[in-house]
Amino acid sequence: MARALRFYGKKRGNRRTDSRQFGRWGELLFFCVLLVVGIGGAAATLLTVVLPEWRVNHDFAAHRCRVLDARLAKKESDDGVVYRPEVLIEYTLDGRSYQTWTFDIAGAYTADRAAQEARLAAFVVDRQEPREYPCWYDPLDPSVVVVVRGYSWWLWPLSVVWGAFLLTGFGGLVYTGLHWGRSVEHRAVLAQRVSPGTLLGNGHAGGEFPFVPSDSDITNSPGTHLKYRLPIGNSPGWVLMAALIAAAVWNTVVAVMAVVAVRGLLRGSPDWPLVVFLIPSAAIGLGLLAWFVRELLVTGAIGPTLVEISDHPLRPGGCYDLFVLQPGRLTFQQIAVSLVCQEDATYRQGTNTRTESCEVVRQELLRREQVALQAGAPLQVQCQFVVPESSMHSFKAPHNSISWKIVVEGSAVGWPQYRRTFHVVVVPRQRSRAT
Amino acid sequence: MSEAAVIIRLDRPSRVYEPGDVLSCEFFVEGLHACMVKSVEVSVLWHTQGKGEEDLAVHQFHQFSAEDASCCDPLNPQQFRTVLPNSPLSYRGRIIDIRWCVRVRVFLHRGREVVGEQAFQLGSSPRVAAPVPAAATVSAS
User: Fold this and answer.
1) How far apart, in whole angstroms, are the C-alpha atoms of residue A298 and residue A165?
2) Rounded distance, CA B101 to CA B16, Å?
3) What is the nearest CA distance from B4 to chain A, expressed in angstroms?
4) Are A354 and B141 a contacting pair at CB < 8 A?
5) pLDDT of residue A407
6) Of A165, A365, B88, B137, which is most buried by a Cβ count within 10 Å?
7) Which positions 89-118 of B are in contact with A (Cβ < 8 Å)?
8) What is the pLDDT of residue B74?
């Protein structure tokens, strides 16, 4: 039985309990409003400013006028008092004399009084002997006249605003129209057609193994001992850089606050809340500094890890050679190399995006105890391993993924545990057809 | 009036297929008059289940309306076949499941619809190994 229309409901990511029908109509109304606002604003700007200014610059006839008076007109608005310049001019056309207050065709008021006074100062008022200035009148209505031509600069940002409304409204209506009344499968097919590189097309295979990540960035780097050198997943250089930036930014802020606090103390008017706030902030700053120094020492003492593999991509049941080279200047209690398969699921919770990870396969490939690394004598080990026969292949979709990686981990007395990962791709095994 | 239902029958009772196999199925709608049906959509698709947001991709999609002269009466048994892709294989993991199915969606007048679904297995169903001691981790952004 169909449920009554729900106007609101619980939401976790895309899983909603509210009415889809109500949501669709709400979406349609929202984009309609945006489109109407965009059309209305653009039309109003076009009719009241753009077209009149264009006519002034192209259709209005040049003439001469005498300036009798000048003033700064002002009025109250939501932003306070706003101003615009006005001059009283007199001109004669076809034997008829005209006298009017005017300036430009836009007649826009602004709060910048000084700027408007500067524009007005270009016209000198001499009541004894009024000076002549150029003016431009409308041939269709000679009483419409201006003493300043040109285009308003603020039309450009205003056009961007109306353009954003129009694009969002129009694009949203097209999106809503394409999805209106379509099933989730039909929408998925449309999305797959738009982005065939990431999704499988409607019955057309997107590569040999759809939704298995490409290994092009792995097989483009040849190894020196084995066929391919694997790219590192989490480079220690980036961690070091992150530690440096975090420590530098945080401690700069703390230093500025410390200067303000010390000046207050020296003046005899200490800002106690600031001093109290400064103590934990300084402690955090020292912690970040210690993190940076530790990462610096780890990076310098352990050195880059090289991992090479005999073939790629991997297949369940396949046997492969692995070579690991680890330079450094430390004595490790142990170094272990493992083949790991991990599931990652991403979901939204409120405004947060969370990723839950879970290791589902961990196969230790080799382990060395009490390894003393010295400069010029790195650890070099080679081993063979078999990808578990019944394991799942690599998989990547927008919110869920299954990834395989070689993990090198080590621990030394007085040093933090280090861990470096190297991604590999496992494709489905080839079936043995009896046909 | 009895409850309307979509009946989907696959050509293999075991409902297990290998990549590259041809999947054939037959479907029909019970409990409806032909005049009540506006259109029918048939999809062969996979979708994820588990902790994450659902991902869904359609491998094969057919849509036909009751007025379409080129198609048959959707209330009579219809045949449908497709060659299955190499991946992704069906999977039951810890926090991610990948499930393949044939889904038939029958659109009726006044916005109502009837959906039928028949799951099948693609591949030899890789399973996760024995539990790994490391606990699941959650990171937020």
Assistant:
1) 52
2) 11
3) 11
4) yes
5) 94
6) B88
7) 89, 91, 93-96, 98, 103, 105, 111-113
8) 60
- Here the CATH number for the domain that contains residue B54 is 2.60.40.640
**What mean pLDDT is reported for chain B?**
83
Q: How many domains does chain B have?
A: 1
Q: Residue A210 and residue B136: Cβ atoms within 8 Å?
A: no
State how far the alpha carbon of A181 is from the alpha carbons of A22, A184, A414, B66, B108, in Å. 12, 10, 64, 17, 12
Contact B136 A362 (CB under 8 A): no
| Residue ranges covered by each domain of chain A | 61-148, 198-230+304-424, 233-302
* ∠ CA A55-A58-A59, rounded to 5°: 65
Q: What is the pLDDT of residues A289-341, one digit of tens each?
A: 998 988 888 777 788 889 999 999 999 999 999 999 988 888 888 899 999 99
Length of chain B: 141
Which residue in the set B59, B87, B113 is minimally distant from A209, CB to CB?
Answer: B87
**Fold classification of A198-230+304-424 (topology level):** Immunoglobulin-like (2.60.40)
If you ran DSSP here, which 8-state letter would residue B127 be given?
B
Q: Is B40 inside any structural domain?
A: yes
Mean pLDDT, residues B117-135 taken together: 69
- Chain A residues in contact with B139 by the CB 8 A cut-off are 354-355, 357
Given a contact cutoff of 8 angstroms between Cβ atoms, the answer to whether A315 and A429 are in contact is: yes
Residues A185, B61: C-beta atoms closer than 8 Å: yes
Chain A: closest CA distance from residue B111 (Å): 8
The closest of A424, A419, A396, A416 to A408, measured between CA atoms, is: A419
Are the Cβ atoms of A388 and B129 closer than 8 angstroms? yes
Closest CA to B92 of B48, B44, B45, B136: B48
Buried residues in B12-25 as b, exposed as e (16+ CB within 10 A):
eeeeebbbebebeb
Q: How far is CA B43 from CA A232, B5, B8, B40, B69, in A?
A: 40, 17, 12, 10, 21
Provide the pLDDT for residue B79: 86
* Structural domain span for residue B50: 5-121
Specify the pTM. Answer: 0.70
Partner residue opposite A343 with nearest CB, options B53, B57, B96: B96
**Looking at residue A193, what is its pLDDT?**
75
Contact A323, A380 (CB under 8 A): yes
- Please choose, from the candidates A317, A319, A340, the residue with its C-alpha nearest in 3D space to the C-alpha of residue A388: A317
pLDDT of A365 above 90: yes
Report the DSSP beta bridge partners of residue A382: A323
CA atoms within 13 A on the CB side of A286: 6
Identify whether B129 is part of a domain.
no
Measured in degrees and rounded to the nearest 5, phi and psi for residue A27 equal -65, -45
